[in-house]
Amino acid sequence: MPTESPTAELGATASDFALPATDGKTWTLDTLKGENGLVIVFMCNHCPYVKAAMPNLIRDARELNDIGINVAGINSNDATVYTDDAFDRMIAVAEEWNLPFPYLHDATQEIARAYGAVCTPECFGFDRDMRLRYRGRIDASRKEALPNAHRDLFEAMRAIAEQREAPTEQCPALGCSIKWKP
């Protein structure tokens, strides 16, 4: 049964963190943010919703980067139960997909809890002042990619980069629940 993200408290400030990534670096909110903002995508390796969304997420991440918005993926799943989400598998997935963004490991799950993340893939879009302006889906794809799906994340973040308001109607993310530790 898929999990849907709740509505967001738009305007909330991004919670800081320092997390290791598949590129061997430790990233913080400050080192990740772009000139016009940042998108944090809670994702994982095993989720069929993430796998289906990956080509569109990669496309959008590249295009968002061109307008000064960086993207970062965070895996917060319990890898002791879901071994496909272990850090070594994250490295393999990042290489396999040639991810154009850092893929971070939230082993303690503190960051997912701080953001209130509930599912994968779930996107949190922040403006240049690190205020939440978008929370929801990449697009309408589910377990299969929809090639002509409306680009919810990209269009919202482009509007934010152009210093317009984010859309008042935002579509929730839908995917696998985050696998919490007991």
The amount of helix comes to 25-40%
Largest sheet: 5 strands, mixed
Number of strands: 10
Classified in CATH, the superfamily is: Glutaredoxin
CATH topology: Glutaredoxin
The helix-strand sequence is EEEHEHEHEHEEEHE
Mean pLDDT: 94
Write down the Rg. 15 Å
Bulk shape: globular
> What's the architecture, going by CATH?
3-Layer(aba) Sandwich
Integer tally of domains? 1
Structural class: alpha+beta
Ends: how far apart?
20 Å
Name the CATH class: Alpha Beta
Output the strand order for the largest sheet: 6-5-4-8-9
Question: What can you see in these coordinates?
Answer:
- The chain has 182 residues and is α+β, with helices and mostly antiparallel strands.
- It has a single domain, classed as Glutaredoxin, CATH 3.40.30.10.
- The chain is 27% helix and 22% strand.
- The protein has 5 helices and 10 strands, in the order E-E-E-H-E-H-E-H-E-H-E-E-E-H-E.
- The protein has helices at residues 29-32, 48-66, 87-97, 110-115, 152-161; strands at residues 3-4, 18-20, 26-28, 37-42, 69-75, 103-105, 119-120, 122-126, 132-136, 174-177.
- Helix 2 packs parallel to helix 5 (152-161).
- The radius of gyration is 15 Å and the shape is globular.
- The two termini are 20 Å apart.
- The model has no long low-confidence stretch (mean pLDDT 94).
